[in-house]
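Run log, item B.
One chain of 127 residues. Sequence copied directly from the ordering sheet:
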Amino acid sequence: MGFTCQSFFSLSLDPPLVALAPGKSSTSWPGVAQADTFCANVLADDQEALARTFANTGGNKFAGVGWAPAAGGPPHLYGCLAWVDCVVEAVHDAGDHHLVIARVVALETGNGRPLIFYRGGFGGFEA
C-alpha cells in the first residue's frame, strides 16, 4: 500500500514524532494503518510522475517502481530525497481526515531539492 500524502509534518523532537493527515475517503490508508508501520518517502523535484502514480486510486502503485524494504518492512523508494521510517502511535478523528501521530524509528537524507505540491500543482524551490 502507498499513497501521496498532502500533509506530513514534524510534531516533536523529543520523542521524535511526525504527523500526517490522510483523508477518510482514502482507499490506501486503511492498508497502511493495518500494517502499523510506514515509510514517508520525501520525493525529489524530478519525481513528479512518481507522486502522480501514488496519488491515483487503486491499482498496483509499486509496479515498475524501484524500492527496497526497510528493516521494519515498509518500502524505501529509490531516488527519494529522504525517507522516514515510522510506527503509528495514535490515530485521531479530525473532520474528514484522520490525524495520525507516528514515532520516527529511522531516517536518512540525501542531497537535492524536494518536490513541492502547492495550489494544485507541482514545483520546487529555486535557488
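Observations after the first pass:
- Helices lie at 29-35, 48-55.
- Residues 66 and 78 are 5 Å apart (CA to CA).
Flagged for discussion on Thursday.
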